[in-house]
Amino acid sequence: MATFRFGQHIIKASAVFLQTELSFALVNRKPVVPGHVLVCPLRQVERFRDLRPDEVADLFKTTQMVADVVEKHFQGTSLTISIQDGPEAGQTVKHVHVHVLPRRAGDFQRNDSIYDELQKHDKEDEDNPAKWRTEEEMGREAADLRKLFS
Ligand code: AMW
């Protein structure tokens, strides 16, 4: 089975629900909200500025498509779309990735708390394997999403 490179991580094809010419989208092992997924360039590039124009175009076209599908699938009514570009911005995986997070009324008491959660959800003390979803759960979610793109 093919695998994908996501920074230091090797991602199984079962967790990837969309591949385009230059990008791919995967489910998250530790979602901040239901439907929190990631869209990445296929090429392992650390910073947003390092992407070629065709990669930026593909990444954002793919993000637009993915965002629309996950918002509807997870019964969201809005979206937070975010890139943590560099370690001081909270980036832990050295491979550009766009966070797509379906939003709904009341999901956070303070709306912008989602950014605090995003910043800390995968930091050392918060991010241990016991808190990750199982491969099976991620595989099921990716399979459901994959159908929505075919
Ligand atoms: W960053 O803090 O670098 O902006 O976000 C990294 C994201 O990647 C986090 O949401 C984290 O949960 C997710 N993640 C890290 N490793 C994996 C993996 N192997 N499979 C799925 N998601 C992952």
UniProtKB/TrEMBL annotation:
Where do the segments described as Disordered lie? Answer: 119-138
Task: Name the catalytic site residues.
Answer: 97 (tele-amp-histidine intermediate)
Its keywords, alphabetically, are: Hydrolase, Nucleotide-binding
Gene name in the database record: fhit
Pfam families linked: HIT
- Cofactors named for this entry: Mn(2+)
Important for induction of apoptosis (site feature) positions: 115
Q: Name one GO molecular function term.
A: adenylylsulfate-ammonia adenylyltransferase activity
Occurrences of domain HIT (ranges)? 1-110
Under catalytic activity, the entry for this protein gives:
adenosine 5'-phosphoramidate + H2O = NH4(+) + AMP; adenosine 5'-phosphosulfate + NH4(+) = adenosine 5'-phosphoramidate + sulfate + 2 H(+); P(1),P(3)-bis(5'-adenosyl) triphosphate + H2O = AMP + ADP + 2 H(+); adenosine 5'-phosphosulfate + H2O = sulfate + AMP + 2 H(+)
EC number annotated for this UniProt entry: 3.6.1.29
Amino acids binding substrate: 9, 28, 84, 90-93, 99
Quaternary structure per UniProt?
A: Homodimer. Interacts with UBE2I. Interacts with MDM2. Interacts with CTNNB1. Identified in a complex with CTNNB1 and LEF1.
One Gene Ontology cellular component annotation?
A: plasma membrane
Which GO BP terms apply?
diadenosine triphosphate catabolic process; intrinsic apoptotic signaling pathway by p53 class mediator; negative regulation of proteasomal ubiquitin-dependent protein catabolic process; purine nucleotide metabolic process
Q: Where is this motif: Histidine triad motif?
A: 95-99
Protein's recorded name: Bis(5'-adenosyl)-triphosphatase
Q: Which SUPFAM superfamilies match?
A: HIT-like
